[in-house]
Amino acid sequence: MNINRKVLALVLAISLAAGSVAGCAGPRGTGADSTGALKNELVLAISREPRGGFDPTTGWGRRGQPIFHSTLLARDNDLNVVNDLATGYEVSSDGLTWTVTIREDAKFSDGHPVTAADVAYTFDSAAKSGGVVDLTVLESAEAVDDKTVVFKLKEPQSLFLSPLIATGIVPKHAHGPGYAQNPIVGSGPYKFVQWDKGQQLIVEANPLYYGPKPYFQKLTFLFLEEDAAFAAAKAGQVDVVYVPHSLAIRGVPGMRLLAVDSVDNRGIGFPSVPSGRKTADGHPVGNDVTADVAIRKAVNVAVDRRALVDGVLEGFGSPAYTACDHLPWWNPETVIKDADPEEAKRLLAEGGWQDRNGDGVLEKGALQARFTLLHPAGDATRQALALAVADMVKPLGIDIRVEGKSWDDIKRMMHANAVLFGWGSHDPLETYNLYSSKTAGVGWFNAGFYSNPVVDGYMEKALAATDENTANKYWKKAQWDGTTGWSARGDAPWAWLVNLDHCYFVREDLDTGRQRIQPHGHGWPFLANIAEWTWKK
Amino acid sequence: MRLEEQTRIARGAHDALVFIAFTARRSFRLGTLLVAVCVFSYWLVSHSPIDPVDAYVDADVMLVGPEQRAAIAAYWGLDDPPLQRFAKWAAAVAHGDLGTSMIFRQPVSEVLLERFTASLTLMGAAWLLSGLLGFALGIIAGARQGTWIDRVILWYCYTLASTPLFWLGLLLLLVFAVWLGWAPVGLGVPVGVLSAEVTWGDRLRHLVLPAVTLSILGVAAVALHTRQKLVEVLASDYVLFARAKGESEPAILWRHGVRNVALPAVTLQFASLSELFGGAVLVEQVFAYPGLGQAVVQAGLRGDVPLLLGAVMFGAVFVFVGNLLADIIYRFVDPRIRLEGSV
Fold it and tell me: What ipTM goes with this model?
């Protein structure tokens, strides 16, 4: 009895102690702290950790915002290209020489001016680093004076804009092997303070930054798994958290749901050549059923994309018609009327597909309208999309067998079977890689061996263009020029299905400004407009 | 007197010799073990379907062209034949260089050290907790065999033994961090606080939940084995004899029970280091606790061969040392057991 009482007292004491500690870290319902003042720092759990550290020359910041670094060019909220560190660029008429001038007032966080030498050094290092920065088109980068850099290319490429937009400039005088772990010197809107590996990153506003000053003086990024991040939001310990769709439908007290448009798309890539060939590695190429454009178009037309968004994505998404919906190089004429089984039936009949033996599956000669659709086994969203599409086309007499595989298996099978892929980038290079004859069977690019000389012609012209507008004009024509193109109106080598919304819970009174369309992969791109973020008045 | 002294010195010298022989034998065994483990792991990795370039490029897959992929492969020596790569790696290791991790772009030794220091406290705390708690529960259950408290402990152990660790971690997180708000949600340090300002109290507070979760793995095993052994001991002839002599139950438990069952508990506790290692992987993932576990998972999933082999070697040494310690501790717990080689 005596002992029990002691134990009880101990438990009580422990819980009281724990309770008092918890008191200091309790939920913060609003942006105001205990004194009523608005706090100017945020805690965000929005992204995976860049494990290789924060060195732009090996790939940090390429798909998002390299917050410690500034880039030569940038995209605005409408995704148009604008100057950042650069004051302008000129491309020679042969497209081989790019001359970029940079601003006078830019300084690194240690006070050193940002010079053309730093820029040239950054691109030189990136080309040699064996990282994910693809600069194979770059011949040389040279600083001709303090403020002018000249890039020489091996061949004309309008897409050289992309590395200029994506590569953060590192300081030549402070860059070395340890920089990725400790990038204290940079010229971006924030400066590096501390990185607790596997846990969090702490950054502070850079007082020497030349651009618009952000309101939030300190940001802490937590690297939590999705479930733990959601738990942290529930416990009131974060201000912004990324959540998957399944969690987005559940609310978090004190936070509002922010669903941001994206080109993070999902769609079916079809093999568009007949079977019979093999790749250099010996994997089969081609599929006789999906090689028939009537089948591909019928799937495109029959699928009810809105129903997929509502049913599979809980409404957090939008119908997708191309790989690049609503980006500056997107052709709006590619939007087709879908959820139209009658039109699909007409297309199939026109293509010679009929159900003669009455088994519910169409035939054309000896061929049955039957193919396999692969999806990565662990991805529930893709599985649900694949199954839903199979259900939608079944009444037409198209029999799709859905199979979950590992990516490594898919890599071997993807040239001969339909695959539920997901792409979406702020770089038109992606559409080139998806549809060019030159990239057929190369890595993950153009797995279905799609090829159309007219489309190729437009895309080569887009690459060779010396300004973005001309390039965009040709990118659009490659999708649909009135008679042909790679979109569903043309050859339909893909059936794009949906664009996923990226869902975040943010503090109710946090204003995150105007959000731009996000690329595949959530997180860092969300910060692109961080200078606009503030508390709601 | 003189003779006794001489005998003592002689025995000391003998003990020392035995110990040296024992250490040498064990070191040799460790060496061969490491070689075998490395060769086998490398063989496995080189037959894994993971394409290291794909794994390295990861999400940037559409923006990295074939030439850049070739450049990446060349930079990391991925296009050399497997045997040549292994030979290169082995030669470097022989010179004390474990190579460079692809995914962290840091020397492997640095990654391992950094990560291990971080998980050491977690693993240590969990290990102690599971040992003590498991042993205590096992003794109680064994001593009160068949009573309600025994049944409760058994039920508790069976439930824990069949509970997925990550799920348990999430559950604890939900209850203690989200509902009760007693514990922080993950991480080894407070959110947004500079390292210089992090106190030991902070660290401790962040350690509790992951350590408790991890310890639960070991509790069930130690408790069940201890209980079983104790039940056997209590049914033995010498305990019957002690009872017949009229010794009290607590005295019997202490003199015959605890001493006898301590041995399997110690073995199990030290043998459990490998499980601890595996459990830490899951727990660190759930709580975003910065340990070796996270790094090993990444190395495996992304074909980072140098890091994986480094971690495998490290793990082998870790488990080996655990077993070695168990052997040495035996001597102290039960003087009848001598180190091998002594008679």
Answer: 0.72
